[in-house]
Design goal:
heterodimer, A: 102 residues, mainly alpha, Helix Hairpins, 3 helices, 76% helix, 0% strand, B: 675 residues, 2 domains, two-stranded antiparallel sheet, globular
């Protein structure tokens, strides 16, 4: 059976991670920043699974489930915060939400 | 029945009863009312006196010469068990009877003396506390328990000197007494450590056994004092302990607190600063006599300091016009005599003088209190005069005690003082051959001075005509005051029988002989060591002397005492009246040196107090206020503030900038660790 080599998975994961990081650092819309975070989490997931397969060890799968669960919880809380921020400030542009400073 | 009357289980009550009295009077006294406070204070002291008297009877006539009680185990340190233990032998039994007996009389006296004072309950609580602590000191079966009492009496003394604390000068006098005593106590503590380092025990009985085993010239192997000789270590220990004694017993150089201690109520001066507490140093040296004899240098120092104090304090008493100050300097001087006694190995004579002095000096102080009571608290003897007519009881008892203290036959002071002088005279000192003669001569001059200033005071107070307060009628005190006066005067007369020299020594000498037997045995070893070292014949041990040996000394002493009396009569009552004033005018420098107590207080102020205050000021303002507060504490905050002023702008609220820093940092870390 032809298997995809580990390096390919890692290359893809790195790419996803880089794209996600770029989104987090560059996008001004909080929702898009958030999506970047999700992308980075999934890049990590992909790395876990790739190693899991490669090493014949199931722990990677288990950790991936944990990561998904954490991502879900985080998404719920994060979206709730955005809604709260939008209600008070009428914007979710992260550049404008900078009251906590100095 | 228990042959010791169960006394060895009752010793702690001598301490506990006054302590309970102090607690009740101190905590509830204000509500109890005067009569109840008096009842409790006198009752507990009387109870303690009864137990003391029973133990004295037991060790004198009973089967056991020493009662010992392990009350409770206190703590163990470095393998040395410290027991709260009390012991009574003939020495401590004598002392404890004086403490509780004279203490009882003075409590009784105080009921009337303090009858106008609002703080009477506080006064009696302190007085009971003092008796408890003094009992601890005397009964303590080891050095640590003795030290507890030693500190405790210092506390009680401080509280009572500063009893009228609203008067700043009096509060200051109390503080001075406490601080000066602390200097001595430090030496005492170091002395204890030195002894523990050598013998590994604090118990007096064990120390005695351990001391009997060593030889003076022995070089120690191992332990704290490895390489030292026994004599060297014990000389150090004895000198340190003696430093403690100079503090507590008001000897040069630490005597300065005692005259100021007269700020306290007069019965306190009688009990603490004349009869009992100040004799603690003499008692301590007698207690450790078996160790002191190994340190002939320390013994010589003790005797010489005693002699110097005896004459120095007597001279200072010449020009004092405060009735209590004269008595205070007299006490310092008489304590000097006691130290001559313990310094030349005449322990019994020193203790005998301690006891007789307790009687007549307590009587004198109480007499002074009675005079003050009748004269509106006036203490200036220049304003008195002719009080004999108005205060007959006080005059009579004061006169008896003055005869006793000046050493006129046949009262107790004559025998006790001359036993000391005689012992000093015939004492063998192979190292310092000139010392015995010097001690004797200085002692005689001090005795002459004593006779002079005591009769001066007596004449100015009771004889002649009233010189001040002319319209004040002095009233004689009531029976609660004159009663103790007469009992003490009676004792001052009666104690003479114990000191009458007979074949084989005075009664008191024979009585205490067993206590000082170990000391004599060790002294023989020291003398043998001296003979070997100096290649001279070993001196004979001091022997007891009968009347025949002492008659010459007695005649000299009597001449001296009458001479002092004569001079005082001539200058203050006889044809020489007015001469003292002329002398003072002719030699103002000399007079002011006497009147200002030779400027010793000023000297200490200049040499010790001021530099200390200066150092304290520097430490306070430079080290504490500036270096620590300003530079270190506030400086840290200030520097932190400056840095924060700049660094805070990094927190600008932009989440994405934080994320960039985080990402770059993460990359950098990975680079460092993986790259």
């Amino acid at each position: 059976m032809n298997t995809v080599p580990l390096a390919h998975y890692l290359a893809l994961a790195s790419a996803l991670f880089a794209i996600g990081l770029a989104a987090v650092l560059i996008r001004r819309n909080a929702l898009l920043v958030f999506m970047g975070v999700e992308l980075m989490l999934n890049a990590a997931n992909l790395t876990f699974l790739a190693f899991s397969r490669n090493l014949n060890n199931m722990s990677g799968h288990a950790i991936a489930f944990f990561v998904i669960a954490v991502a879900a919880a985080e998404a719920a809380i994060g979206l709730a915060i955005f809604i709260a921020v939008f209600r008070t400030r009428n914007t979710i542009n992260v550049d404008e939400v900078d009251a906590l400073k100095y | 029945m228990d042959p010791t009357l169960g006394l060895s289980h009752a010793l702690h009550w001598i301490v506990l009863l006054p302590l309970i009295g102090a607690a009740i009077n101190g905590l509830l006294g204000k509500r109890l009312g005067r009569a109840n406070v008096h009842l409790i204070a006198l009752g507990v002291i009387f109870g303690a006196f009864v137990i003391s008297a029973l133990s004295l009877y037991e060790v004198s006539f009973g089967d056991s010469s020493r009662l010992h009680e392990n009350w409770w185990h206190w703590f163990t340190i470095g393998g040395i068990p410290v027991e709260m233990a009390f012991a009574v032998d003939r020495l401590s039994a004598t002392l404890i009877c004086v403490v509780t007996g004279v203490g009882f009389l003075i409590h009784l006296f105080s009921t009337e003396y303090m009858s106008h004072d609002e703080g009477y309950w506080r006064y009696f609580a302190y007085l009971n506390l003092f008796v408890a602590m003094m009992s601890t000191l005397v009964l303590g079966a080891n050095l640590v328990v003795m030290f507890v009492g030693w500190e405790g009496v210092g506390l009680a003394s401080y509280l009572l000197i500063g009893f009228w604390y609203t008067d700043e000068a009096k509060a200051y006098a109390g503080r001075k007494a406490f601080v000066v005593n602390r200097v001595g106590d430090f030496g005492f503590l170091l002395g204890i450590f030195t002894l523990v380092g050598l013998f590994g025990t604090i118990d007096f009985a064990e120390l005695q056994v351990a001391a009997a085993r060593v030889l003076p010239g022995m070089v120690l192997q191992g332990g704290l004092w490895s390489g030292w000789t026994v004599t060297a270590v014990l000389t150090l220990a004895c000198l340190l302990l003696f430093l403690g004694a100079t503090g507590k017993s008001a000897q040069v150089p630490l005597y300065v607190w005692l005259p100021d201690a007269m700020a306290g109520p007069t019965p306190v001066s009688a009990l603490i600063h004349a009869a009992t507490m100040v004799t603690a140093g003499v008692y301590m040296i007698a207690r450790l006599s078996f160790i002191y004899v190994y340190a002939p240098t320390a013994m010589t120092v003790v005797a010489c300091v005693g002699a110097f104090t005896a004459i120095f304090a007597a001279l200072m008493a010449y020009a004092q016009n405060d009735i209590k100050k004269v008595l205070a300097y007299s006490t310092v001087s008489q304590l000097g005599f006691m130290f001559i006694g313990v310094g030349v190995g005449a322990w019994w004579a020193a203790i005998f003088h301690l006891v007789t002095h307790a009687f007549f000096k307590a009587c004198l102080f109480l007499g002074a209190g009675s005079v003050m009571h009748g004269m509106n608290d006036e203490t200036d003897i220049r304003k008195f005069g002719g009080l004999r007519k108005e205060m007959w009881h006080t005059w009579a008892t004061f006169g008896i005690s003055t005869i006793a203290i000046t050493g006129i036959l046949p009262l107790s002071g004559f025998f006790s003082k001359d036993a000391i002088l005689h012992a000093a005279h015939v004492n063998a000192n192979p190292w310092f051959a000139w010392v015995p003669t010097a001690l004797y001569v200085v002692g005689l001059i001090a005795a002459l001075s004593t006779a002079f200033y005591m009769w001066r005071m007596f004449n100015l107070t009771f004889n002649g005509e009233r010189r001040g307060m002319l319209h004040h009628h002095a009233h004689e005190s009531g029976p609660a005051m004159t009663g103790p006066l007469w009992v003490l005067a009676g004792l001052a007369v009666g104690a003479a029988v114990w000191g009458f020299p007979r074949h084989g020594g005075a009664a008191f000498e024979k009585f205490l002989a067993p206590v000082f037997e170990p000391a004599r045995a060790n002294l023989a070893k020291t003398y043998a060591f001296a003979a070997e070292q100096l290649s001279v014949a070993a001196p004979a041990l001091p022997e007891s002397h009968g009347f025949g040996d002492m008659i010459g000394g007695y005649l000299v002493a009597l001449i001296v005492a009458w001479a002092g009396f004569g001079i005082a009569w001539y200058l203050y009552l006889g044809p020489g009246r007015g001469a003292p004033a002329r002398i003072a005018q002719a030699a103002p420098g000399l007079y002011s040196a006497f009147a200002n107590k030779f400027y010793v207080d000023e000297f200490y102020d200049l040499v010790i107090v001021r530099p200390l205050k200066g150092t304290a000021r520097v430490l306070w303002q430079v080290v504490d206020s500036f270096a620590i507060d300003k530079v270190l504490v506030n400086g840290t905050a200030m520097v932190t503030g400056w840095i924060a002023q700049i660094v805070r702008y990094f927190q600008d609220g932009n989440v994405q900038r934080y994320a960039v820093v985080m990402a770059v940092s993460a990359v950098a870390i990975l680079w460092v660790f993986l790259g």
